[in-house]
Amino acid sequence: MVEKQVNIGWSKTEMAQNVAMDIPDGSYVNLGIGMPEMVADFVPEGRELIYQTENGLLGMGAVPMSGQEDPELINAGKKPVTTIPGACFFHHADSFTMIRGGHIDVCVLGAMQISKNGDLANWSTGAANAIPAVGGAMDLVAGVKKILVITRHNTKDGKPKILNQCSYPLTGKGVVDTIYTNLAIIDVKEEGLFVRKLGPNVDFEYLQEHTEAKLFQ
Amino acid sequence: MINKTVQSLAEAVKDIHDGATVMISGFGEAGSPIELIHALIDQGAKDLTVVSNNTGSGNVGLAALIEQRRVKKMICSFPRTTNSTVFPELYTAGEIELELVPQGTLAERIRAGGAGIPAFYTPASVNTPLAEGKECRLFEGIEYVMEKGIKADFSLVKCELADRYGNLTYHATARNFGPIMCTAAKTSIVQVRKIVEAGAIDPEIVVTPGIFVNHIIEVSHPANESDLVAQKFTYPW
Question: Would you indicate the residue range of the signal peptide (chain A) (predicted)?
Fold first, then answer.
């Protein structure tokens, strides 16, 4: 008899759903490029979120229909977008006044590494041959009220991403509020990393084995 | 009579000199003044320091200016994007300098440069390699890093409408760095999709006041960088 394969943890879409559930109605939200963008697809019925994209649009709408794209109406990932009724455009200094000045409520970002005290590394591995590129990540973590990180719990080769200390160059120190992985939802508090919710078929011991930093229940 | 309209792209960029600092608007292709950049390539100025968010894509526009070895140094926040190969190759070969700046800091440095503010403190990049060697200071218990304003000799900007005074409006997310770059350059050169009569732009919706603009040139059908890249065009054609 073939044993049924047990799925451990959440899928990507479930991770995005977990993040979406935690963003309050009426929030101004900046979504990072990649997996964070998926969060917009799972906003619960009855909540209105306003998306800011740092290249100068508040009130970003859905992906345009094929043939309706405007190469000068794009998001931070340089992909065509649309505007919602009530959207507005602005220049970059105003955009980062919103970000750095604490006017954006929530930012969802990806991560390469996160430390036990909420340090985030998500822009460079520090490798000598890499072309360094930072974009708006350092401004976002410095100024947005809540920083939510969505990431696989481990690297592709199984190494922990939640560490005692980041080895990659930091994006910001002590900036992460909550980590949403495929295995768990983890809140970063002053006393340490607290597991709020375990993924399907994940127990605390399994989670700790896959995490370098000490976790609390 | 004030009329900032010039008759050709070549005339618009003729004064850009070797060693100049040139701000170039755009976030990806949105707002990138491709026709002005191509005119600058034809004009020949070299050893330029270019301030722009990205480094262009394919072999046209800003990427072509870099490929023609006219740029000594890039000041930008994100030098590698889809279809961006020219800058990464030269940088890896050690043939172009890079000053990497967080995007919001880049914007504020340009804004400060235009506003007569020599330096300011920002929380972005504190405790990261990008703050190394810079003055840090505590305000109300929080650490900030000092960043300097940037001024330029010239800015090249793309906009939607202009009148002869240089009042400008922009299109969608092509606005990005244009308004602040116009303020931070001694000479701002703007390519305009349509030049209209003075008074045709409602004063309530002017985005860049004409005082920040020196030359305007109408480019009624600007190329889309992504189309040129898709067709594998290289400038000079």
Answer: none
